[in-house]
Amino acid sequence: MNGSSGALFRFSRNLPATVGAVVLAVIALIAVFAPAIYGTGPWDIVSRPFYWPFEKAGLPLGTDMLGRDILAGMFDGARASLLIGSLATAMAVLLGLVVGLLAGFYGRRVDNVLMRVTEIFQTIPSFVLVVILVAMLKPSVGTVIIALGAVTWPTIARIVRAETLSLREREFVQAGIAIGMSDTRLLFVHILPNALPPVIIAASLLMAQAILLEAGLSFLGLGDPNVMSWGTIMGNGREVLRQYWYISAMPGVAILVTVLALNLVGEGINDALNPKLRQL
Amino acid sequence: MGINLHLRASLLGVVMATALAGTAFAQEPQRGGVLTTIHFPEPAVLSSGVNSGFVAAYVSTKIYEGLLKYDRKGDPMPVLATSWDVAKDGLTITFHLRDGVKWHDGQDFTADDVKFSLEKVWKVLHSRGRLIFANVQQVDTPDKLTVVLHLSKPSPALMYSLNSFQAQVMPKHIFDDGSDIAKNPHINAPIGTGPWKFNEWQRGSHVVLDRNESYWDTGKPYPDRLVVRYIPDAAARSAALETGEAQLGAQSPIPLSDVKRLASLPDIKVTTEGYEYFANVSTTYFNTARKPFSDIRVRHAFAYATDRQAMLDDIWYGYGKLATGPIASYNTKFYTADVPQYPYDPEKAKALLDEAGYTPDKDGIRMRLTYDVNSPLGAEYVRLGELLKQQFAKIGVELTLRTQDLATFLKRIYTDYDYDFYTAYNGIYTYPILSQWWGKNIQKGVPFSNSTGYANPRVDELIEAAQIESDPAKQVEEFHEIQKIVMEDLPVLVNFELDPVTIYSTKVHDHSVTYDGPFGSFSDVWIER
């Protein structure tokens, strides 16, 4: 208990990390509540196209090329980006944990096979693989999550494997083996909790990566055509970038802020959990 | 709707400026210079005889010629044929060919070349040519400069299809060696009779054509060189036109949203003239073979619920005109406005859906449908899906948008028929080719065949009759009746007549002097210096 509350304290002492966490919380609140409270849907055509931000009362962020309220799109985009980002990350973490734990704990042939598979995924540029996967499956929220999860898990697997390899040789695990504890119990009760801290740090960065990848997909028009994500708005605005740059710029800023916040939080957790950086 | 008025006004301004300029440059053409043009995408081959698409045509129409060309009103003008007689029964057509024409390699052009092209290329290898020249039974060449076609049935479309876009005369001495014409190396290094000689094709970059010094129309063409550049990125194409790196871009080569900005620049002009020959209309296809579009009331409801003006103004930036039927209004010969019309009227749409038994459920939803976004055709079609989703939501129809790559799309639409509705565009041409409404054109697996499952025996009869009708008055009658029936049955909703744009430097003159505009030979184009 002492250790974790100490970590929390250290995190809160870290100003950038705290700012990141607050920003994330605000975005999460927006994602959950704003669309319902705001009322206007992201696809509703509410006014004439191409109102600049603050040009018209009631449309603080202006309208896009079809006269849709960009603010409504931004709210829904927050929901789509966070949802896709977090679910894809959850999938990657789950997959990475399983592969990493098995490879690290059993070693030898299991390790060999699993790591070669991981390397295949690591050597293909992740964005290219995502594009191929989504193009093969029909673009929808589900397939985008699966594709993003499928390309981001190797990082987690690598980290978990390394942690497991070292934990496996530690006395408490060796003692567990000696008294005949089952593999499942060893893996999930003793090794997994101790391997988690670096995974949490990596996951926060992975989520940032997933949000960026999703934006890239939607920008290229390969996202779910029924979901308004930040990338969708950016991609729509690309055509009119010369005259109406604000359409692409606003979701761009939103993505920047979110990804930055995730990175700050990740760094903060890292600093808080890293014993070498503990200040006395 | 302020923006629409604004758009319209500025569009009108552009058109007027072009018209004024048109009268102003009745100046003496000047020799010399290099004309760099943009078209997109890059073609697979450089001869239209074996590939009927627009991209191959853009280059090959400069090198090869047809027997005829069509003036700005669509009337035939001499090119390789100087005169022609059509027999009273329409079954014999005699062409008298131009004397002294030489191929780019110095050989004489003769009647044998025409006979070869018709029998071995147009009738066999060209997708539309197969239909257009189907009734040509025999081609006689009584002397070197006379060609006589004998037809089994009158073929009125034939006389409208002899320009170099549809029927390029190709050299017999190059291609008639018994080998596969489509694989002959000269397909991509063409030897023609036209004003421009092939110089080089740097794949992925450009095609260079040189002035034909010994062109039969002495003195033409005027520039020394014609370059066609292929630039993959739309914004970069815009920039090339803006900076003057290219002086002409044909067939809307840049995002339509950018056209207005370019048009406002002092040294750039925009015109929608020169595409009348193709008569493209934007069309929404309903799957009449299954529910709910098997019910005519549902099709009518969707027509009333489609705000086509918004579609045209907000997505196509006003480059078009609302259509009443498949035949565009500028085809004055066969067009009729006397057809059932579907002005935007969501209330009427709801009433029709009620009548058809599609009443709203507790969420206010009458039906859930999937709309296949024709994304391979470009960003406009993605935007259109989003717009339709909104428009149909107003009548209680929930639309799910589906995007897919071209191969999947084609299979879904033309092989599996597993779709509700989608939008595309359709070329109708001068003598209307209405194959999308022809029941006998339901050919499983053939892309761009009749995908709606629509087959009305009376329409089939009329379409077939019109193809072999020699009496002009009867042709008009038949086309009028077809338009009335298909707009009542409505397997295909015709949204608007498309107006592609040509963007060009004010220094470039006389580029679109024929009915097929930038797909003409560019024999008259000249650069002001």
Molecular structure report:
The complex is a heterodimer of chains A (280) and B (529). Chain A is mostly helical and 280 residues long. Chain A has one domain: MetI-like fold (Orthogonal Bundle). Chain A has helices spanning 2-13, 15-38, 70-106, 108-123, 126-136, 141-168, 171-178, 183-219, 230-238, 246-273. Chain A is elongated. With 529 residues, chain B is α+β, with helices and mostly antiparallel strands. In chain B, 30% of the residues lie in helices and 20% in strands. Chain B has 14 helices and 21 strands. In chain B, helix 8 packs antiparallel against helix 10. The model of chain B is unreliable at 1-25 (pLDDT under 50). Chains A and B meet through loops of A and helix 6, helix 7, helix 9, helix 11 and strand 16 of B.
At a glance:
The complex is a heterodimer of chains A (280) and B (529). Chain A is mainly alpha-helical and 280 residues long. Helix content of chain A is 75%, strand content 0%.
Write the layout of secondary structure elements.
The complex is a heterodimer of chains A (280) and B (529).
Chain A: H1 2-13, H2 15-38, H3 70-106, H4 108-123, H5 126-136, H6 141-168, H7 171-178, H8 183-219, H9 230-238, H10 246-273
Helix pairs in contact in A: 1-10, 2-3, 2-10, 3-4, 3-6, 3-8, 3-9, 3-10, 4-6, 5-6, 6-8, 7-8, 8-9, 8-10, 9-10
Chain B: H1 2-24, E1 34-38, H2 54-63, E2 68-70, E3 76-78, E4 81-86, E5 92-97, H3 111-125, H4 129-132, E6 136-143, E7 146-151, H5 172-175, E8 196-202, E9 206-211, E10 225-229, H6 234-243, E11 248-249, H7 256-263, E12 268-271, E13 280-286, H8 296-305, H9 308-315, E14 320-322, H10 346-355, E15 367-372, H11 379-393, E16 397-402, H12 406-416, E17 421-427, H13 457-467, H14 472-489, E18 492-498, E19 502-505, E20 508-509, E21 526-527
Parallel strand pairs in B: 1-10, 1-11, 15-16, 15-17
Antiparallel strand pairs in B: 2-3, 4-5, 5-7, 6-7, 8-9, 9-10, 11-19, 12-19, 13-17, 13-18, 14-18, 20-21
